[in-house]
Amino acid sequence: MGVRRVAIVGYAQTKHQWDMPKTREDMVFEVAKGAAEMAGVTREEIDTVINASSDYLDGRTISELFLTMPSGAYLKDYTKTEMDGAFAALYGVMKILAGTHDVALIVANTQGSTFNPHQVSYHMLDPTFDRQLKVLNDMAIAAIQARMYMDKYGVAEEEVAMVSVKNLWCAAKNPNAHRKMPGVTVEDVLGSKMLYEPIRELMMSPVSDGACAVVLASEEKARKLTDNPVWIEGVGSSQDFYVRDRNLQRLEALEKAARRAYRMAGIKDPFAEIDVAEVTERYAHEELMIYEALGFCEEGKARRLVDNYVTWLGGQMPVNPSGGALGADPITATGLIRIVEAAKQIRGEAGAYQVPEVRRALAHGQAGICAQSNIVFILGGEE
Amino acid sequence: MSKERKETLAVEDTWPIGAYMYKGPKLYNEIVEGFKRKKIIASLCTGCGRVFFPPRNICGRCWRKIDARREVSDVGTITSFTISPEIKRGQVKVLGLDPVEAGIVKDGERLIMVYVNFDGTDTNYATVLLNAKPEEVHVGMRVKAVWKEKPEGLLSDMEGVEPIRKESTQ
Amino acid sequence: MWRNVAVIGVGQTKHGRRRDVNTAEMISEAAWRAIEDAEIAPEDIDAIVIGNMQGFGGICQAELWAGDWIGAPGKSVLRVATGGTTGGSVAQAAMYSVISGLYDVVLAIGFEKHSDSKEPGATTGLAHVGLANLFYMFNYGAPMRALFALSGGVGAAAGVSSYQAMFYMHRSGCRIEHYDMVAAKSRRNAAKNEYAHLQWPNCTPDDIAKTPMVAYPLRFGHICPASDGASAIIVASEEIARRVDRPAWVKGLAACADEENQMGENAQGVGILDTSEQLQCRIAAMKAYEMAKIRNPREEIDVAEIYQPFPHQELMYAEKLMLFDDGKAWIALEEGETEIDGRIPIDPSGGVLSTNAIGSSAMQRVAECALQIMGKAGKHQVPKDVKNAVAHGWGGSTNFTVVTVLGDAPRR
Hints:
The complex is a heterotrimer.
Chain A: E1 6-13, H1 24-39, E2 48-52, H2 55-58, E3 77-81, H3 85-97, E4 103-111, H4 117-122, H5 138-153, H6 157-171, H7 186-191, E5 194-196, E6 199-200, E7 209-218, H8 219-225, E8 230-239, H9 252-265, H10 270-273, E9 276-278, H11 284-293, H12 302-307, H13 324-327, H14 334-347, E10 360-367, E11 373-380
Parallel strand pairs in A: 2-3, 2-4, 9-10
Antiparallel strand pairs in A: 1-7, 1-8, 4-7, 5-6, 8-11, 10-11
Chain B: E1 2-4, E2 9-11, H1 27-36, E3 40-44, E4 51-52, E5 58-59, E6 64-65, E7 68-72, E8 75-83, E9 112-118, E10 125-128, E11 142-147, E12 158-163
Antiparallel strand pairs in B: 1-2, 3-4, 3-7, 5-6, 8-9, 8-11, 9-10, 11-12
Chain C: E1 5-12, H1 23-38, E2 47-51, H2 54-57, H3 62-66, E3 76-79, H4 86-99, E4 105-113, H5 123-139, H6 144-150, H7 156-172, H8 176-190, H9 205-209, E5 213-215, E6 218-219, E7 228-237, H10 238-241, E8 248-257, H11 279-291, H12 297-300, E9 303-305, H13 311-320, H14 329-334, H15 358-374, E10 388-395, E11 400-407
Parallel strand pairs in C: 2-3, 2-4, 9-10
Antiparallel strand pairs in C: 1-7, 1-8, 4-7, 5-6, 8-11, 10-11
């Protein structure tokens, strides 16, 4: 991608949980310092800091205002993106590619326990019409999407529940995950509280408090800092039409984003060339649709990948070995966490949920209702 | 509930903000504990030596946690100020309240709001100037904290600051 | 590596109280004007960067809904927001997007729809900057009078700014009359700008001085309005920019963040004793000028668009941008140097003092500098050759600064 290359050289994340016993400031400080320490950079060596936080979720206008000092941004080039942290990582990549900065620190955070995010999603709707109905929010719309998808392809509840079981089983091996449910079964998932038919509680990501930070560096700098840089080989993003005007049966924007990322990374056969994928699945059925949009299988065939254990840890194409969003969803930080988890797989740091011999990984983040806006990163280890 | 207007249709909605649970540190526990004894407890960054009041728990300059404390004087200097016009009953609402009705100011009073740099600190503390006329306040004025007779361990124990008047020597 | 980029088109809506459009319609007005001005087709745009203060219009992530109105579907969309300087940060994000080589043509939009909120203008939304802090202080028995002191009796930006206006007066020796002069100049210039909000063709300092004092030393006439509006620019790579008559080249860009200036998270203290010092502005300016190879800003900058919702900020930031010595800007003001036809015109558009749709305001500073270089500023075009222009924005609690230097030729 261009003349300059960018690598991930350090990262940190919190132990995601409900109502973390830490203020936002302390939480951000912990991950920002942790990432810098892992990268082996001093505050002086950081050229730019980018925060990702959401005013609505934090209940504060200019939500990043009081997080700048804990993020290490004192007298530094600074900005904030207000969507999933993976987009902030994209901005960091652009600043380094521009040649104006060598080291970027990306910090994303949300304490979901501050305000019900599902209430916030209601405010994403068109204020002149959809909101007036007072019945829609992200869960309701996801339920409509799930019903459409399941009916069209004859997907059974049990198969959707299998996605939850897969991810929660992995999350139990992930020390940072929120949900710790080792031995959870399909029956447990189908017995969990019904939210919006057919979506049950364990088919939806939890509301988590958490933060994540990543240090990006230019090639020259990365080589000085580490023997094991994780290269950003491709990135692509795309936004879909507004929820009422788009085709909910497919994740078209994700398809476009993935295609762009694959093109940049020179990937022709994603299923064969990618070794592991960390995706943001806010709902279990969404993960099935994600497989199809990423080109891992034909439309409607995603359930086979789950039924046949292909996307399980130990399968041909593990998806979300960290547990994914179903394991922990500190919203604004979730996409950045996917990037970190993908990087960990490449560097061999994933412990109990390590996939063997990972050379290339995919990380996906989303924003908006039912993945309206998507971003895909292709990461690669040293040859 | 829409109203007909010439060019557009107006639709009302509310932005319910009552459901937020904000998180805070226990930092101010120390301030109010000090206030109960009519003392100001500031935090000191041992990295750069800066003293903060109100206290702070992370120093941005050093990028480290601040865990040292220092008791500082309750005498300081006004570094900046602003003065409200006369606040009359029924004239204005601030933060949803009528200041006169709520007993915050007297009818027609002008509130003198000041930044005070207490001696030994590197910060400004925003408070009100008491027992002074608006014409008297100036940058550089020396002031002292005005404590409640019987402090209760609340921020209101320091009611404000007042000018330090020199004794007449004649 | 760096590659040259330029602003090739500008679009703005009329700013003011816009009850004739909803947010999506308003954004599309600016976007389509910019696309037409740049003489490109919507399909030519690769990505969109957009920003506003979410809470003000009551819509969360408005670009998800309004994106359909500006050709967003299928494109990469990035949302950037940094308080007052949101527009400036959005513009810079668009610039970095193209400089990086990932995109060739990017649409950048900043907007705000204050009138959609019931409470007057920016008060509600801005109160939420520190609301959590106030609740925290209530929890510890803070007296209401003290909270008035924090908000300067008027709330949020005006609160921080009235103290800052006092700091600046004390440090520079200027008088309230100079603030009256700045405000009057702003209204007069705004009258020459068809998109501005508060237009007063023959406004004099006396007219401003007659307005009541709101929070000493700021008068009602010194305070910016809360406007509805959107502004947009199109940033393009060198290859595409060369097809345009007179693009406004991006020569330098920088941003910098200082400690919060008034209070930190949960009402914690801040180690800044003089909020008119603005160290981060000086740093951002130095970096931007260095990139632009401008060694003597006083001589080389032909026009400046400074983010000044309050009059002292025009003087204060002009000094931090090294256009005048510290504490001396008011003398230049007295001598007419900063008028539209002066030696160094400041805010010929009228600036933020007369037009403030927060998400749009800092974008307008960049857009106005581009217009001046392109020769398209109409009645408020400065009557001199514009080789270099500097656009400035502040955000947060006056502790974020964004500085962009545009010129009539690319970086050497």
